[in-house]
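Reply to thread "Modeling small-molecule complexes from scratch"

Following up on the discussion above, here's a worked example others can learn from. I took a protein sequence and the SMILES for magnesium ion and predicted the complex. Inputs first:
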Amino acid sequence: MGKSTLVAALAMEAARRGMRPLVVELGHRASMEAVFGQGPIGYEPHDVGRGVSAMNLGVEGALADYVADNLRLGGFAKLILDNKALGRFLFAAPGVAEVVTLSKLKSLVEMRKADGKPYWHPIFVDLDATGHALMLLELPRVLDGLVGAGPLRRLLASVSDLLADSDRVILNLVTLPTELPVQETLELYENLDRQHRIQLGRLYVNQVPDEPLTYQALSVVDDLAEAGLRTGDRELSDDIALGRAALRRFSRVRDQLKRLATRVRIPLVELPRLTTGEVSLQDLQRLGRLAAGEAV
Ligand SMILES: Nc1ncnc2c1ncn2[C@@H]1O[C@H](COP(=O)(O)OP(=O)(O)OP(=O)(O)O)[C@@H](O)[C@H]1O
Ligand SMILES: [Mg+2]
């Protein structure tokens, strides 16, 4: 759909505006390695060029940080995590992976420079498909699954507070202007909107094709088609058939955009299909500007 592409583009745009953005990729997808082409990206944030830093937030690293920061075991944390049996036990507990991941995000959000300003700003989290967004909705259920009042439960309460803080956390959605992604996005949006647990930002509709012809030009196409028929010019009629197919595709796209506009109450931002080939860093810069609402 373009989630990772958009995260990279928005981060580049933030850097261009003088901020210090961090891209956080959850799990081990390594999409940012391919986008920025700067070698492996690990658990520690690292400069990937264009003023952007990136990291992969894997559960193992987040769990190690959690143990080190909360269980007061200090240097023993790694030793304990290296013990496979204990690792399995911790992972098996409901919600542990989610809570330690959110806890790491919280500590990144709260990192400060010497002057007290946020160290990373903004932080773009590349949520992997709809599942990750739904994970946020599942937090109350996770809470019920955690027994007692131990550090994990306290932590969950504090990360829930962060997610609910509309000044600090915004969830943006990305979709494509075709039927199935739109359907899925509407369901997700309505679910999130109903739950009211997180501030929704914008809905980016990515890869909107250029309008092939204005509708006023349609009569011209009809005239051309007639001329083609009269003169028996095959090539002309082939071109016209192609043009009409593009127009039909575009009108289906328009229908999907209308469908979104009638049901979604957050701003819709249409983004163009930049290329049919590989997206370059220059393409990303342009996409970032458009996504941030700047005419280019
Ligand atoms: N506006 C665009 N114009 C042209 N190509 C694009 C655009 N947006 C994304 N792409 C291309 O589409 C493909 C999918 O994009 P991307 O990896 O960002 O999607 P994703 O939503 O992160 O996918 P996944 O769910 O697999 O993580 C990539 O090859 C990317 O370069
Ligand atoms: Mg992705």
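What I'd highlight from this example: Residues 1-5, 31, 128-129, 206-207, 271, 273-275, 279, 287 surround adenosine-5'-triphosphate (ligand 1) (CB under 6 Å). The mean pLDDT is 85. Questions welcome below.
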